Each structure stands twice: as C-alpha cells, then as structure tokens.
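Complex 319.
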Amino acid sequence: MKRALKLVGLILLIILALLIIGGLFINYQGIPTYDVQKIDHQVISTPESIERGKKLVSMLCANCHKDHQTGKLTGTRMPDAPAEFGVIYSQNITQDKKYGIGEWTDGEILYLLRTGIKKDGKYAPPYMAKLPTMADEDIDAIISYLKSGDEMVAADPTPDYPCEPSLLTKILCRVAFKPLPFPAAKIELPDTSDKVALGKYLAHNLDCFSCHSADFKTNDFLQPELSAGYFGGGNLPLNLEGQLMPTSNLTPDMETGIGTWTAEQFVKAVKNGFVEGQEALRYPMTPYVYLTDDEAKAIYLYLKSIPSIKNKVDRAVIG
Ligand code: HEC
Ligand code: HEC
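Predicted structure with heme C bound:
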C-alpha cells in the first residue's frame, strides 16, 4: 500500500515537473510564429478610396490604435483588453518607418488583416482585429488610407510599447486561437441596391455581430451567422473601467429585441448613441457618426430579417 502511494506520488511529481517545464517553455517561446505567404499586391489609391478608407479606419481601427491626446494612430495602452490576456498595447500604425508601418508592403498589411499573421510571422492574438469577410475593395481602401499621409496616419516617431501577453494568452495561442485562412477567391462588395444584403455586409464587417452575439468565445468570424446566439445579445465586452457591459439583443424579438423599433429610432441609436427615454448608450457602444443614414437603415432592415431570439438583457454594468 505504502509503495503504491509512493509510486502515485512520484508520478504526480513527474507530471507537475513536466507541466512546469512546459509552461516555462511556452512562456519563453511566446506567441507562435507562422510562415508568411508573400502576397503580390499593389493598391491603386484614388481620392474616393482614401476617403472610404478613412471612414472604415475611423470606425474599425481608431478605437484601439488612436492616441486620444494627439488624434494620431500611434498606439496606446488598451484598458478594455481583458486583464487575463496580459498588458496590451495597440501599436503605432502611422507611416513612421521605425515605429510605424512605413516599411510594410501593401501585401504584408493585407495578409495581416486577413489572417492575423504579422510581417515577421508572429500571430496577432484576438485583441487585434481581423477582416476575413470584408470585400477586397474595402480592404484596399483601408490600405490606401493608411498610406495616404492624412494627419491621423502621417509618419509619427512615437515609440510603441510591445505587448506583454500573459502565459494564458501564449498557451491559448498554441491550442485555441489560430490564424485565419487567406481567402482563396476575391470577395466582392454587396450589391448596394439590395438593402438587406448591404445591411448584412455592414453588420458583419463593422463587427456588430461580434459584440452583439452570445460570447466572443463562440463567435464564428468566417461565417458570422453561425455564431452562438447570433445578434441575441448578452456578450460581455469591457468598458474603460474594466467592468462588464452587457450587449443588447438586436434580433427582431418583440419583447426582448428591436421588434417594435422604427428605422428612425435605430438610426439614431447607432449614429447618435441614444435611445428615446433611456440613458445614453455607453462605451464600448460608441456612436457610429461615419455611417450614412442609409447604411444604418440597411443594418436595421437586415436585423429585422434574421431569426428572433428571446433573451432579455439587463443594461446594468457588472463588476
Ligand atoms: C480591438 C483593438 C484593435 C482593433 C480594433 C485593431 N487593432 Fe490593430 N492591433 C491591436 C493590438 C493590440 C496590436 C498588437 C498585436 C500584437 O502585439 O501582436 C495591433 C497590431 C496591429 C498592426 C501590427 C503593427 C506592428 O507594428 O506590428 C497593424 C498593422 C494593425 N494593428 C492595423 C490595424 C488596422 C488597419 C485596424 C483596423 C482595420 C486594426 N489594427 C484594428 C489592436 C487593435
Ligand atoms: C465593442 C462592442 C460593440 C460593438 C462593436 C457594437 N456594439 Fe452596439 N452595443 C454594445 C453595448 C455594450 C451596448 C449596450 C450599451 C448600454 O447599455 O449603454 C450596445 C447597444 C446597442 C444598441 C442599443 C440597443 C438597445 O436595446 O438599447 C444598438 C441599436 C446597437 N448597439 C447597434 C449596434 C450596431 C448596428 C453595431 C455595428 C455598427 C454595434 N452596435 C456594434 C456593444 C457594441
């Protein structure tokens, strides 16, 4: 009996030692590296594409990459990244050659935005956005804006801080989070005369679904409709104080969703950040001032066409 116990103890000790060695190894190795596929891609900029890119970058990238003191995309500490992920800094993405992305080719930027693999092969964990379903034309617009010299992205030599991902992030990046595949075919823009199709494209590519479904962990970024609780709300992004902010149910359910809302109410909520008779919408639901009324209305029409989910979400902040 004693011998058997000793043996069990020894085995447990060996397992523990192996776990510690494995943990130290992963901690030392850091975020995994992947092969970078060379993408031969040259974006042709026009004044229209730069303007379109500015609008997309303002809605999709500035929230994280902007220094709110200078208004430039020189990166900042992200207070709303979950603390378990480590200390996270968004990076300088101005045209500065040393600290920014002045030396990145169009193909390298495209490859990162599609797959999550950076120029040096390192994988950018989920705290950096990816655009797997955006139309080629829109991604090109983003790239032309990043290279445009506009004041938000003009070269600025502000050094950026490297992220300090936690051991948990490093482990998850080996077992759970993986780069996305580079699209095999061109992704076309939706037909803008089909409002529901346009609304679906915007609801997916402006990331509305990722916050407004059940949980970041069960979102499907390649096929957003397959995300658990698609647009049924209840996901818990963080606010700037690190508290959990429940997201609203945007399905057409009559009691718990937006079934009784008019298009005007919806447009006002999304663009101006307030709903009649209620406290203003709070961070991270920032007003989408760049959306046209037509685009916000298209999102509304699409949301009215998806299956209802009955899920009452309380607006109270948690934590
Ligand atoms: C939710 C926050 C968030 C959003 C939204 C976001 N980023 Fe990032 N981005 C980050 C973080 C954090 C990093 C650093 C990742 C790392 O250390 O691997 C990063 C890294 C990058 C890098 C690599 C920079 C370098 O020097 O290594 C580029 C380029 C970039 N982002 C561009 C963009 C663009 C373009 C958009 C909009 C389409 C965008 N990001 C949206 C947080 C974000
Ligand atoms: C970063 C996460 C996030 C993203 C992205 C996001 N939302 Fe929200 N949204 C929220 C949160 C959180 C609330 C609740 C805010 C509150 O209670 O003050 C909210 C509230 C709303 C409301 C109010 C609903 C109600 O019942 O009061 C509407 C409408 C809305 N969002 C639409 C959108 C649309 C459309 C998009 C995309 C263009 C979008 N949201 C993107 C987090 C997000």
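The pocket of heme C (ligand 1) is lined by residues 57, 60-61, 63-65, 78, 88, 90-91, 93, 101, 109, 112, 118, 124, 127-129, 131, 142, 163 (CB under 6 Å).
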